[in-house]
Amino acid sequence: MPSGTRARRPKRTSLPWTTTFALAIKNVLRQKGRTASIVAAVVAGTAGLILSQGFIRDVFVQLAEAIVHSQSGHIQLAKGGYYTYGVHQPDKFLVSDPEGDKARIASLPEVEDVMARLGFSGLLSNGRADLAVLGEGIEPDKEAKLSSFMRIAEGRRLRSDDRYSALVGKGVADALRLHIGDRVVLMVTTSDGAMNTADLEIVGIFQTFSKDYDNRAVKMPLSVAQELINTNSANTLVISLKHTSDTQRIAALLRERTVWRDQEVRTWDQLNDFYPKTVEMYKKQFGGLRLIILLMVLLGVVNAVNSSVFERTAEFGTLRALGNKGRHILRLVMVESFIIGATGVTLGIGVGAAGAYLISKIGIPMPPPPNADLPYTAYIRFSWDAAWTAAAICLSATVLAAIIPAIRVARIQIAHALRQAI
């Protein structure tokens, strides 16, 4: 070698991205046992998240529909202050033009129906005992369409041709030992401050999702309630929409209308404040469940990836000896984990969707929720939002689980790595 000439180092080779992906796919297919164990963990995690979130979503939907279609409707409109003070003085909070308001609201295309209600408190007697109740005058035909979640335990619903007839909650019937055909006396205070009574026949006993409501509720035709209270008006207008998802938009529209500026517009979730609290509680519980599933996937994947990576130490040492840098080894391991994770979440979405369909076909018998007497059947509501969220979580967990083992093997000395093959 001529003096002054320096020896050149052999040029290092590196793995292009295309070669990395090709080699990663071959390695994934070659390590069938390890790959299958990691894929199984990812599939289980993804499907578990989809099914659990679908179950919680069904709880939210069924509870919301039970509230809407057994008691409150989608939206209620009443004179300002009624929801704060109207329970004790309903005659002071009457809608001034209920028929005109009903016609204007019903003209909105999203509205299914509008009905008037007149609420009051009174004393119900069967001749042997008395019970303080919350009475409600209703439009029977319209309420029958709305109250699809209200179950008639005995008897029948009110009809438009009923006169002095009443529906009572199951709790009221149990407290006074009432049966179909029994007659009761309802005593109330009129709008003038006088006492008035009505002799009513029990034609039905009902149950809703709310035990507290059933313990105090008495329903009768609106005309009878107006005669009792001595008024031609109503306290609330109950709006039934074609789609529950339109609730907030229609409520905002009603609040903007100048004709209703002196009235309160309440949505079903505002009228039942336990619903958002229940939703928040379940969301936190599901957050904890999602964290547990994530940890299970991480632990399963970390264990499998660790074993796989360190069993292939000699292979990675050979790649290093051929001139590849540690970052190329790191990239190869990460790409392999990504491929395995992507395969697992794809299969997991399929398993989750199939499981949701099959379980929903059968149904899950559930006991009555808190403060209720009626059991119900739960389903799994599959949604693509939940599926993509579960896939993102499990894919991220798979890739993250490979980082530490990949860094360790990328930093191992070449000589030490090659000795592992001996």
Short description:
This protein is α+β, with helices and mostly antiparallel strands. The chain has helices at residues 17-30, 32-72, 82-85, 98-106, 140-146, 170-176, 211-214, 222-229, 247-256, 268-271, 274-311, 313-321, 326-362, 384-401, 403-410, 414-419, and strands at 75-79, 111-125, 130-138, 151-155, 165-169, 183-189, 195-207, 217-221, 236-241, 263-267, 364-366, 376-378.
Please tell me about this protein's structure.
- A hairpin with a 4-residue loop joins strand 2 (111-125) and strand 3.
- The protein has two domains: 17-65 and 276-419, no CATH class; 81-261, no CATH class.
- By secondary structure, it is α+β, with helices and mostly antiparallel strands.
- It has 16 helices and twelve strands.
- The protein has helices at residues 17-30, 32-72, 82-85, 98-106, 140-146, 170-176, 211-214, 222-229, 247-256, 268-271, 274-311, 313-321, 326-362, 384-401, 403-410, 414-419; strands spanning 75-79, 111-125, 130-138, 151-155, 165-169, 183-189, 195-207, 217-221, 236-241, 263-267, 364-366, 376-378.
- The model has no long low-confidence stretch (mean pLDDT 83).
- Helix 13 runs antiparallel to helix 14 (384-401).
Question: Which properties best describe this structure?
Answer:
422 residues, alpha+beta, 2 domains, 12 strands, 19% strand
